[in-house]
Amino acid sequence: MKKLSLKKTLKKLALVPALGLALVQAAPASTGEYLTGDFHQHTTYSDGSYSYDFMMQKNNEFDLDWWANSGHGGGFTRDGRYGRDNGGDKFWDSYTPNPIIGDVRYSGGHQIMWRWQSLRDYNILDLLKARGDYPDKMIYQGVEWNIPGHEHCSVSIITGQTDPVSPNTNALGEFDYKFDKNDSDLTGGALQGWVKSTLPNLHPKAVEGVTWLQTNHRFTSYAIPAHPERQGVWQPNKTSTGYNVEHFRDLNNAGPDVCFGFEGIPGHQADPERGGFSPSRAIAGGTYGGAGYYTAKVGGLWDALLGEGRRWWNFASSDCHLHWTDGGDDFYPGEYQKTYLYVEDKDNLQSYIDALRSGNAFVVNGDLINALDFTIYDRSYPKNKATMGQELQLKNNKPGIRIVIRFKSPEVNNNGDPVRVDHVDLIAGEVTGIVPPSNPDYTNATNPTTRVIATFTENDWREINGWKTIIYTVKNVNKNMYFRLRGTNLAPNTPYETDVQGNPLQDKLATEHLGLDGADEAWADLWFYSNPIFVKKAAD
Question: Distance between CA atoms of 401 and 535, rounded to whole angstroms?
């Protein structure tokens, strides 16, 4: 496909009032806005190092608009209200009387409190306090599901969390009791009428859990697999192992309204093994530009799912346990990674869950950009348009589509570094339809039609009303397709960082050859990814 120069494109647009610069300058036709957040972070309620209050302060310090604490499920010994920031560890069994309910289990010489109880009796109180401390933020509670047959999955059920009379996390606690592979309590949950799953801790139980969410909390919950490449290739009959493409297909089939994406950009970005991805274990030997291989590989697993037309979105979060300056491998929430959600009503928690489900989102490392408007227009009917997560139904194939990309960057990021986008890639692939489980391609994790169709540099964009603006035309769209973006601060063929086409290289190369370690490599190697826009050809 031929790329028009920006000068020629703007000249052509000027000849067509309906598609002139007013189109480029227009804001999205909605009352919503993009808001920054993080839904995967830990405190001493699970295996984090800091108290709940401290992590709330950090979310606020780095100017996030919304967030969810999401410690692991199962059971833990420490009181989540205390950490290394406010007096060190305190244990649930140190209180008199002992507050712990349910079956007695020990870890490290202390009795664990089941996560369903800490959610029900303690997390909710901290959540309500945090909302009072930061009234202009949207804060809710999640859990990192120890998902049967795999490793981890970020989950929330907001049902009850904003109840005006008696706010609660009972639904989330019930889910954890029923389906977390590390919850072996048989009595405490049962006293509340909860019926525990009896399936072995393997993949079918994960599907059962997602099915339960879809059935009982269809629009008020989500299940987003976390750092999916970290455990490597899936192994049958293992309770904690990786994810293959067929597992995502299974989970999305079971709960299309609740399991609609993954954390393609993992946390732990300050780890010397970036993302905490061991080169000897992780899929493809680690992360690529901070992204897991399923996201970073053009034509790989993510593109295979999009090529079916699945609404499968990409997210990022900090997974913060312990900050790198304290001897850990993490950035604080919002310090390095952000997920931008297009939220219709910032004062309504339901709008945030709806926004996650919509796919109108993009993810950024190191504040490479802080605003993105990615819109595709039907050239025949310019009022017919779509943005991220949406589908554009064309009315006439011959004139094709016009793609408008606008972005902004801050002057400096949270490391104090000047920020500059070197190039933006436009990636496209064909949509050929859902693959049924009976088809041998159900286990195929590739999309050979996907490729970078255009790369834009500073010579290709123009400053318009403070936005760097790119316009690109694709003629004669006669197939169902999708389009997505990625951008970086690195030029193609940057030694040990990008290849000659500008694709990210394995991050361990930079740490081995450039002497960059942990946080230094993360700040040197910045990327953003958009979610896709689907384009459906006109009816024959």
Answer: 9
- Dig out the tokens for 239 from the structure: 């309770």
CATH class of the domain comprising 6-536: alpha beta
Would you kindly state where each structural domain of the chain is located, as residue ranges? 6-536
Model confidence, pTM: 0.94
Distance CA 367, CA 189 (A): 43
**Identity of the amino acid at 41:** Q
User: How is residue 3 written in tokens?
Assistant: 């790329």
Helix 203-216 and helix 170-179, axial crossing angle in degrees, nearest 10: 160
Class of residue 439 by CB neighbours under 10 A (exposed 0-12, middle 13-18, buried 19+) = exposed
Residue 301 DSSP SS3? helix
In sequence order, what are the beta bridge partners of 341?
A: 35, 361
Q: 389 with 358: CB under 8 angstroms?
A: yes
pLDDT tens, position by position, 170-228? 999 999 999 999 999 999 999 999 999 999 999 999 999 999 999 999 999 999 999 99
| Residue 203 · residue 247 · CB < 8 Å | yes
Nearest-angstrom CA–CA distance, 39 and 36: 10
Residues 186 and 103: beta-carbon distance below 8 Å: yes
